[in-house]
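Milestone M4 deliverable, item 7.
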Amino acid sequence: MHSHEYAELVIVLAGRAVHLTDVEQHPLQTGDVVIINAGRQHGFDDSKGLQLCNIMYDPQQFLAGERQLEELMGYRALFDLAPRSTRPTEFSERIHLSLAELSYANGVLTALKQEYEKKETGWKASARYQFLMFVAFLSRAYTQQTNKEATPMLQMARVVSHIQQNYKSQVSVAELAALAHLSPSQFQRRFKQMYNATPMHYMNNVRIHAACELLKDPNKGVGEITLASGFSTSAFFCAMFKRSVGSTSSEYRRQCVP
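Output delivered:
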């Protein structure tokens, strides 16, 4: 058993084993993919012909701010909810690739490995592109595998994707709970367990992030930004912005706009 200071994407290329973590154990076979978060204790036992491809990465460096990926339900389930989960019996998820999918994955991984080893001009940009392409591929594959199942992880991923796409509108807790096929009280408890925040707090954080991007345009006024980021009044927007960012919107704009 060991842990890392980085996240780890593990692809089983051949063989089998039992994957151990500090909270569970489960069998692995050819085609399985597991995402292990930083600090999570894990190891392998009873391996037979096991061949792995491990991609070690910093999520803040490679995945933060990738808004298009964040809109994918599979991305939310695999790269957000699954790594943070501490309740494996209810929330733990992984993905299994078919032989055709594994063959495609091998091609992407080979290209990524070659970029890293050769380090030719522009290799960092190319390696980043290959990695993000692989993340998108896994996210889509996960959604296709589970789109007919009401798994807890996919239910909550569907909710967060809905928030990302509809934060400009007035979305209710009841509407989000219906997407998760839960009662409002059950939904709010589960969301708080996964995100350590209420659904409305999470949505307001998404809105504040959008407002920060809009404030970089000096031609947009506070009233326009208030509506474009989903807040109902300028007073509420200003109060939430100061609470979340630690400065007023005007102070933030002065720091960001030359």
